[in-house]
Design a protein that fits this description.
It is found in: Endoplasmic reticulum membrane; Nucleus inner membrane. By secondary structure, the chain is mainly α. It has nine helices and no strands.
Length: 253
């Protein structure tokens, strides 16, 4: 009789331990609330309090590391920061990756170009820049991640979604323009290296200025790299969009 009671107690103990261990790392369906007596005390054994899943703990740890690392790298976030004297130079880099100068320069080039091949490349660059602005605005509006607390809101030409930081529009644009230029312009090797370095430095400067977290820039690089694939797939040419090129040629005459 004693042996039977011991085995029953041991089975309950093992079952309860396994349930808690499984629930903490691989949460199953949430258990039903326990039945309570009129006095308010549980009628049966109280359900264990669910612990955060392993994925949630890992995500929170990575997020905390991202915020801490980004703050440490924000050495030009203000004039009194560690490298505050370099802030004006990084703000020039900020303008070089902004959408407004790129859109204005592309439109100017389209108006001045007399080469059909050149107009085709510039028209697709304009399409790529507009696509980048739309996609980044959509993702920022969906994620709504606030900019770092140490950021100083003195950015060049902003709109409503620019109060959000994920992803970095400068990083997406730099990565996409870098791929575009390397694929469609014939450049010497030193110039190609400079284009790649420009894209990387623009992304790093966003963290140093305190505009973005590291994850914002990293995702922005990936997103911009993939955006060029979309532009390449929907490449505009006299064969794929004859009406568009006909209107453009008449407007230039």
């Amino acid at each position: 009789m004693r042996l039977q009671k011991y085995n029953t107690f041991e089975a309950l103990l093992v079952s309860d331990t396994f349930e808690n261990l499984t629930f903490s790392c691989f949460p199953l369906q949430h258990p039903a609330p326990p039945q309570t007596s009129p006095a308010g005390s549980p009628a049966g054994r109280a359900a264990p309090v669910p612990s955060p899943s392993c994925a949630a703990v890992a995500f929170r740890s990575l997020l905390a590391a991202d915020l801490r690392f980004s703050r440490q790298l924000g050495v030009c976030a203000g004039e009194r920061s560690a490298w505050g004297s370099a802030r004006p130079l990084l703000r020039l880099l900020e303008v070089s990756g902004h959408g407004v100068p790129w859109l204005a320069g592309t439109l100017y080039g389209l108006g001045r170009s007399e080469s059909p091949a050149g107009r085709e490349v510039l028209l697709n660059l304009l399409f790529a820049l507009v696509l980048d602005l739309v996609l980044v605005a959509m993702v920022k509006g969906l994620v709504r991640r606030r900019r770092p607390t140490h950021n100083k809101m003195d950015m060049f030409v902003t709109i409503s979604v620019d109060k959000y930081s994920f992803p970095s529009g400068h990083a997406t644009r730099a990565a996409m323009v870098c791929r575009f230029v390397l694929h469609h312009l014939v450049l010497a090797i030193p110039l190609r290296v400079l284009v790649v370095l420009w894209a990387i430095i623009v992304g790093i400067s966003r963290v140093m200025l305190g505009r973005h977290n590291v994850s914002d820039v990293a995702f922005g690089f990936i997103m911009g790299y993939m955006q060029y694939n979309v532009v390449k797939y929907f490449w505009l040419s006299p064969l794929s969009a004859p009406a568009l090129f006909a209107v453009w040629n008449q407007w230039n005459q």
